[in-house]
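To: structure desk
From: M.T.
Subject: fold request, one chain
Message: Could you run this one when you get a chance? Sequence is below, nothing fancy, just the single chain.
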Amino acid sequence: MGLFDWIRDHKRLMLGALIVLIFPSFVFWGISGYDQFMGDGTHVAEVHGRPIARDRFESAHREQLDQMRRMASMTGQQIDAAALDNPALRQEVLDRLIQDALLQGQVIDRKIYVGDLRLREEIGSIPNLRKADGSFNLEQYKTLLAAQGKSEFQFEQGLRQELALRTLPEALGGSGFLPTSVLESIVAAQLEKREIRHRLFSTKQFKDQVKPTQEQLEAFFQKEAKRFELPAVADIEILTLRAKDLVASESADADAVKTFYEQNPQRFGEPEQRRASHILLELSASANEAAKAQALEKAKSILESIREGRDFAALAKQWSKDSGSAVQGGDLGFFSRDAMVKPFADAVFAMKVGAVSDPVLSEFGVHVIKLTDIRPAKLKPFEQVRGDIEQQMKQEKAQKRFAELAESFSNTIYEQSDSLQPAAAKINQQTLTLEGVQADGRSFSPNSKSFEKAAIDPRVLRAVFSDESIRSRRNTDAIEIAPGVLVSARLSQYQAPSKPTLDAVRESVTQAWVLQAAVEKAKAEGEKLIDTLGKELGQADLSAIKPGQRLKHAALDVLMQSFSEPVTITRGQSLSLDQQSVQAAFKLGMQGKQRVSGLVVGDQGFRVVFLSAVIPAPDEQLKSSVPMVREQLASLEGRLLSEQYLKYLRAQADVKTFPNRMTGTPAKP
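Reply: Done. Structure tokens follow.
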């Protein structure tokens, strides 16, 4: 017996051993304590050992929800933020932060720097920042920054970093290439129009002409027996254990809540913020040593003037290249450490109020910094967070209880597998019975007189309708359909698939036979017309026919009178034809029988399509469209390359995630 076979046959023993090993740590430390033991609990992921902080994740998550609200309000829709705030959305936000972290590593390794010219272009492309004459609207720009609570320096620093992260994906996105000959063929085919005439032989006109005999119905019923088979139907009993259902019955000790608040200031604190002014002397990342030395000398000269008593604010207005803060005397307002680049932040958070720094070199240039105020870190008031702590403690207790009940739940449904009632009694929950459920999850509703989808997970459906479940009529295993949700089910009543008598479904069988016979008759009539057209086409002079003109052949002219008026269509677009018929029209050629074809159109009947003209796009339209289509197709190819590159980075990266730290109450509007 192989190792995997032994594990499969002894899975209950293995699960019991794992629970014995893991469960005591939860009992002794609690869920939050276990989480703290496994990590510091302050970050949701690590990328190459560098943490992604939980507060950064929560900020990005709130921004995502806010953006979704704004998009909904723009379209006049009302959305429920709580409904949108689901594990999938949180995972999407985390994946984006991980992607940014991976790209940041590439930016640093490849020494990618966004220059001033690229930055100005990006700012200039922001909507509403241009006057009527095309010049830059500085006042509007300042208003935009004020609305975001940022100085020009802070805004441009963030934008520069964002552009740097976009550099590699955009480079790949712009690398798509398509040969000119292939491109021109695609554009010509895309813009080509066709003039057609068509005729539908409708099933409606033939239904009254066909009446089945008893023998025909019986033969059809036997041949299509599977089509009329009555599906399996069952009454299903379901028992669910949910961690969230246990929360309401738990309580939180008031002293424990207070202690937790006092012992976890980092969880409920507002970080220290500092206010500073600076004088920025621009210096590009590619500057040589001579330029750096010159900028540093200028900064030292300004610093000397300050130490001699010159007003810092006046010097900032005179020399600083950060125009957003220069007009305010260099004032940047209050900011946290992570809001600034590291050299700048390290200098500011090492200073005392009133001190002026030595020249600080960053990727934006040389700074002379004055610290003007400190806003100490502080705790949020206990009353403000007490409810959250109580809820968290209740959830932790519920999780512990869920772990205990889950073992009992799983054992009981296995050991007493002929009923769910013993397990229901142990977890103090009621079973739910769903009647008349089919294997696809549908059940007939007497109220709506139609089939509706039953509220049952597909995994549970598969288990309860399995051959083993049907044969033994025992409880299914405990199925985890979501974190903290276990379900077991059993068949209380089961009716196997059955073949009805012809009399029981005679009406349905008759309708199906009549429709099939009508389609066959329509097809036969249509194919007869195609044969006639094919013969006449060999005698007609079609070379001089222009779009919209009637044919000059008498016999064809008569035949065409039963067709529609000429219709001009393009690929993928027609107001009067279904897409299937449009595709058939574009498969036709311009010679012989290739100019006419037919097809069965669902239950409607048989359509004959006649091609009267191919209308190529004018040369001017082709020439003007090629660049646009080239850009679209190249962009598509480039986007695929970019996506593959990001997947490659993720696959090669050392990434650890902590999903349990992403849960919480939805961000409030």
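Reply (cont.): Confidence is low (pLDDT under 50) at residues 1-40, 664-669. Let me know if you need anything else for the meeting.
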